[in-house]
Amino acid sequence: MKKAIFIIPHFGKFPNYFQLFLNSCAGKKYVDFLIFTDDRTEYCYPSNVKVHYTTLNDIEKLINSQLGLESRLEQAYKLCDFRPAYGLIFKEHLKEYDYWGYCDTDLIFGDLDRYLEPVLEKDYDKLFFLGHCTLFKNNDENTKMFFEEIKGKKRWHEIFHSWESQHFDEAFEHGINYIYEQSSKKVYNENFSADIYTHGTKFYVVRMPAKGGIINIKKEGYVDRDGDTLFVYDNGKIFQYFMKDNQLKKREYMYIHLQKREMKVTIAPNSSLYKIIPNVFENLEYKNITPENFHLIRKYYFNFHKIKLIYSLKKKHFKIRKRRLFDKLKGSN
């Protein structure tokens, strides 16, 4: 039996629904999780989730030591660019695993084992392509793939020394996906996630364009507006319910990605059945969802997500422009 591990360095407070994330990690046969954090809040960690309390400064030292760099981690979000190098940075923790990778914590996992069991046995070098969930076969070649040139340039060196986030973990044109697509490596570019649209107040799933069942990761995703829709966590599985042609439809997903939304939690931490709606985790009104009761289930609360997002992005862009101007002035002196 092959086994994988997700590596999650996280500094600062975890999301307020982090216990729900941990619960969704529990009991997986094929997956463990390795967390490095400075958040010492008392959570109930499942047996397959290992936590190491440390600091961002200590992780910076480890990165520089393993990669021979002199980089500075000014912000924790910059760690996303180092994700393709986690196999080398955290190699001492990975010896017993066949695959290593990374994922976000703004997820609720469904039946991971169901989706991973068949593909882990097919000897792929890389599984999936999105930054919130990617796995690599644990061997020397894959561990060092990020060193490969992109269009004649050693982009990793430039990116690792930049203070700006470059999305090296998922961007196609200048990221790890480009390196694998240009290689002879065996990749599995499938997407089993309910990747919630960032800019929508309601929940819409972002899907990738496909032709003949093959996903084209070079193109931008599109927003699937299924209308009246409902996501449910049901005893370790994630389902989407929606009406189409006057019929109740049901889709299963490997996980739901909430895109850093602010979510209220109104359920008990150990709940095994609940709905996930904008922007709250809430008890489900009916144990069994039918065409007759579907329209009676509340699927949405008014929220200011879009307004908050616009403000947050403007604030972020202002900081970036300010920093770039500072660097430019500093360089001209």
Topology, please?
Blueprint: E1 4-10, H1 18-25, E2 31-37, E3 49-53, H2 56-67, H3 79-82, H4 86-89, E4 99-103, E5 107-109, H5 112-120, E6 126-130, E7 133-137, H6 140-143, H7 155-160, H8 176-181, E8 187-188, E9 193-195, E10 205-207, E11 210-211, E12 214-215, E13 222-224, E14 229-234, E15 238-244, E16 247-253, E17 255-257, E18 264-265, E19 273-277, E20 280-282, H9 291-294, H10 305-332
Parallel strand pairs: 1-2, 1-4, 2-3, 6-8, 9-17, 18-20
Antiparallel strand pairs: 4-7, 5-17, 6-7, 10-13, 11-12, 14-15, 14-19, 15-16, 19-20
Overview features:
alpha/beta; 3 domains; DUF6625; 10 helices; globular; six-stranded mixed sheet; Spore Coat Polysaccharide Biosynthesis Protein SpsA, Chain A; 26% helix
Describe what you observe in this structure.
This protein is an alpha/beta fold and 333 residues long. The chain folds into 3 domains: 4-191, Spore Coat Polysaccharide Biosynthesis Protein SpsA, Chain A (Alpha-Beta Complex), CATH 3.90.550; 205-305, no CATH class; 306-332. It contains 10 helices and 20 strands. It has helices spanning 18-25, 56-67, 79-82, 86-89, 112-120, 140-143, 155-160, 176-181, 291-294, 305-332, and strands at residues 4-10, 31-37, 49-53, 99-103, 107-109, 126-130, 133-137, 187-188, 193-195, 205-207, 210-211, 214-215, 222-224, 229-234, 238-244, 247-253, 255-257, 264-265, 273-277, 280-282. The strands form 5 sheets. Strands 3-2-1-4-7-6-8 form a 7-stranded mixed beta sheet. The chain has a 6-stranded mixed beta sheet with strand order 16-15-14-19-20-18, with no helix packed on it. It has a 3-stranded mixed beta sheet with strand order 5-17-9. Strand 19 and strand 20 (280-282) form a beta hairpin. The longest helix has 28 residues, at 305-332. The model has no long low-confidence stretch (mean pLDDT 91).
